[in-house]
Amino acid sequence: MNKFVRKMTTSAVAVATVVSMSGAAALVPSVASAATVAELEAQIQALLAQLATLTGGSTTTTGGACYTFTRDLTVGSQGQDVMDLQKAMNAMGFTVSTSGAGSAGAESTYFGAKTQAAVAAWQAANAVAPAAGYFGPKSRAAYAASCSTTGSTGSTTLKGGAGSLADADFIASLNGEEVGEDEEDVEVAGLEIEAEGSDIMITAVTLDFDYADSGGDDDFDDYADEVSIWLDGEEVARLDADEFDDDNNYAKTVALDSGAIIEEDEVGELVVAVSGVKNLDSTNAANGDWNVAFEGVRFRDAQTQW
């Protein structure tokens, strides 16, 4: 039987914290203000009706976390929908500004260069091309799909206070795994993650597949059919392997289902699995080593739920 990957490896060195892992940090939305969620939502809804008439655009919220955008937004746009776009970018870790206007809790109604840069970074991470910072039809569709995948906390209430990922170690047993031709959901890499101070909802994971051989093709979808992500044995994301392509250097930020929750003081196993293609070229079978790296983990704690 041909092999899709002879060795798909993570690093041989386990790490103690997410911050030091592959030089990437876990991204946490900024803490909300002292107002209650109900008060904030009431204020937002009151402003929406007033500002929609003035700006020519509007947004609605879905479950308090997702926004529905109704017009194209670009440099110079103004309105409540611009503020909501900034909120969405900040919450997803694509920071508009670290301080002042546009920063978390101080989002503005003006679409400027910083908003454009944040949107462009989000587009690049989500394979929306061109990643130019123009929030048009393709971006609205991609955001809606991502939001429906990650979801809001909805009826799910995270318990605790300000949370963190206290520890994250590679699962030592998942290293140098082989994925055979047409094999499904073979576990190739994973992290053991401990939640501290709060329940933690993992909202997205950035993965990077790197071709390690000199022979064969270096297109990931010539070897893999699908990539899936699992938390404690439950599937939380699945996507076609061709979403990891040359345009994004085989890296992608993958949004997870809203059920990807690790309870406070518990350890969850976040695992990446790969399904092999049905018909593998013999040259690729002989030269099919890939490395997979966790470049970032985004999460939400009890203080940052909407």
Describe, in plain words, how this protein is organized in 3D.
The protein is of the alpha+beta class and 306 residues long. Helices cover 21% and strands 32% of the residues. It has helices spanning 37-55, 80-91, 113-125, 137-150, 282-286, and strands at 3-9, 59-62, 66-69, 160-170, 177-180, 186-198, 200-211, 224-231, 234-240, 251-255, 261-262, 267-276, 290-300. Strands 1, 5, 7, 10, 11 and 13 form a six-stranded mixed β-sheet that branches. A five-stranded antiparallel β-sheet has the order 4-6-12-8-9, with no helix packed on it. Strand 2 and strand 3 (66-69) form a beta hairpin. Helix 2 (80-91) packs across helix 3 (113-125). The protein starts with a strand and ends in a 6-residue tail after the last strand. The model is unreliable at 1-38, 44-64 and 149-155 (pLDDT under 50).
